[in-house]
Every structure is written in structure tokens, then in C-alpha cells.
Amino acid sequence: MPDGAVPILDVRNLKTVFRTRSGEVHAVNSVSFDLKAGELLGVVGESGSGKSVTMMSLIGLLPSPPAEVREGQVNLGNMDLLKVDEDTLRSVRGARVGFIFQDPMTSLNPVFTVGWQIMEPLRKHMGMSKDAARNRAVELLELVGIPDARSRLRDYPHQFSGGMRQRVMIAIALACDPEVLIADEPTTALDVTIQAQILDLVKDLREKLGMAIIWITHDLGVIAGIADRVIVMYGGQIVEQAPVRELFGNPQHPYTRALLRTIPSVRGERAARLEVIEGQPPILGAPPAACPFRFRCPERLARCDRENPVRVPVGAGHDAACFWDPATGGERNA
């Protein structure tokens, strides 16, 4: 990925709110990031940090109500996806932006064959004939490593294993050669052997097709092996962003450092007890006016209770939203 390349996707000041009986929940708070052609961007954080809601907000996949994308810009090329009508947005989904969901058993329709589900976007978005769509569906199943692909077009999702269903989901997401592929924890429900196979498949497809990928996960070990750049989310906002090697080698936010300490290590003769991050992610009834991580943070400063830090540059391509400076152990720029 060339430095200085124009972003294929540019997200600015995205804010998403859920209306509930007990009031509003501010799930995404002023999130900004970009994605360049051919880049694999990892998005990490605990459950409830806003990862999936952010990415589903981009292409209108959240039910409204209760969800409302209240502010922001999502520029896909020259098109702001938050300003287009529903018909235009439907034409973007699948054709220009593919989405792989976490659980293929609930994402695939159990009453339609796998072949029909792959062929539908080809006929709808690309205007293919039935025969052309069928041939393309066979190519896609072969591309994602499903043997005897032509005969398997007639099978239903329940006739595939979990790993094979996830491969089918990837085939559907790739059907129309999208510019951007968003993968929402696609290996979470799979055993470790199948996880490794899916990760190898995605790396291989990325090399062959050159598409940009957003990979959402809570597993930093996965991100270490596939990502170019990583954004860390907490409390509905990005708290750190860096190239993957920089993030692992020089984490600047206490939350990122805590996440890295939770990764199991096989070094040494005895396994050490896994570290945990005490407490729970916040449920935000209002946009955060102070640091959302402060109640769980071992480096909490007085200023953290008064202000919500904005991201500031801390290195080449590296920024963090934190008042604490790990180099000095005191306040940054104090």
C-alpha cells in the first residue's frame, strides 16, 4: 500500500445513537478513520466498545428505529453514504462494499440453496443471466476452497460445516468484486484449526484480488498476523491508531497496553496467570465529557475526570487519545 494514497473510504465524525426506554445510548462518538486501497485495517476492542455498530453504521445495516446515525460523513470515493437514498445504499451493499457477518448459520437463509444465495447479488447488481451467474458462483466457491463446487450449489446451509458456511459467506461477499470488504469477527464461532484456514484464505484472497479489508475482532493475536494498521476502540470512540508493528511494539494508551497484557504467552516453563481488565465498558447515556476509560485505568490523572482526550500524534502514523505519557509516567505535554 503506497504511502499518501488517496483513501478509498473516509469516515469523519461519525455519531450513532440508540433510543431505548431508559434513554439514549451514545454507541459511536465522533469516530474518524480512513481506509486505503489494498489495506487491511484491524478494528479491536472489547464487546460493547462500538466496533460492529460503527461498521454497520457505514452502510445502513442498523435497524432504525432504535438506531440513528446522527452526524458524520462516510465518503466512498465521491459518494457520502449517509446522504444517499435507500435504493442507492442497497446498490452499494454487495456491489461496492461486501460484509461478512459473525455467524454464518444465522446470516445464510436456511430455505434457499447456497447457489441461489450466491447468484442473487450477481443477477441483481451485475445483471448476469442465470447461466452466467451459476458459472460465476462455481468460480467463487472454488476460489474460497469448497470442493466439488458445481454440485454443492444445490445444497442448503445446514449441509455445510461451520467452516464451510463461513467460506460460503465470504464467496457471497466477494461475488460482485467489492472495493471494500468488512469482516465482523468472522472466525469467532469456529474452532482454532478452521480459524487458521479462514485467515489463510483471506490473506490469499487479498493478495489475488487487492481489495481493502476492515477486520473487526477482539483477538489481537489474529490482528498481529494479518493487519497493516490497527484502530483500538473503547466507549464508542477510537483511543489509539497505529501501524500494526508500532501498536504492538510501542502502545501508548493504557487500554491498548492492558489488552496486550491479556494475550496468552507460551514463553517460559510455567504459564503465568492471564491478566484481566477489571470492570466493564461504559454504557453511555450521553457523549463522554471525560475519559471513558478512567474508572478502569491504572494511570488515571486528575485531568481525566474533567476532559475527554482527543487523539494526538505520538509517532509516525500513530495517534492516541490519552493525557498520560508512558515515556515519562506523567501528563503528556504538561
Q: What does the model show?
A:
The protein is an alpha/beta fold. Helix content is 31%, strand content 25%. The strands form three sheets. An eight-stranded mixed sheet has the order 6-7-8-3-9-10-12-11, sandwiched between helices. A four-stranded antiparallel sheet has the order 2-1-4-5, with helices on one face. Strand 1 and strand 2 form a beta hairpin. Helix 4 (114-126) packs across helix 5 and helix 5 (130-143) crosses helix 7 (162-174). The longest helix has 18 residues, at 192-209. The model has no long low-confidence stretch (mean pLDDT 89).
Q: How would you classify the helix and strand content by structural class?
A: alpha/beta
Count the beta strands: 14
Tell me about the biggest sheet? Answer: 8 strands, mixed
Strand portion:
25-35%
Compute the gyration radius: what is it?
21 Å
**Whole-number mean pLDDT:** 89
Brief descriptors of the model:
14 strands; 334 residues; 11 helices; single chain; globular; 4-stranded antiparallel sheet; 8-stranded mixed sheet; 31% helix; 25% strand; alpha/beta
Please give a quick description of this structure:
The protein has 334 residues and is α/β, with parallel strands linked by helices.
Structural topology:
Elements: E1 7-20, E2 23-36, E3 40-44, H1 51-58, E4 67-76, E5 79-80, H2 86-92, E6 97-100, H3 104-107, H4 114-126, H5 130-143, H6 149-152, H7 162-174, E7 180-184, H8 192-209, E8 212-217, H9 220-226, E9 229-234, E10 237-243, H10 244-249, H11 254-261, E11 312-315, E12 318-320, E13 324-325, E14 330-331
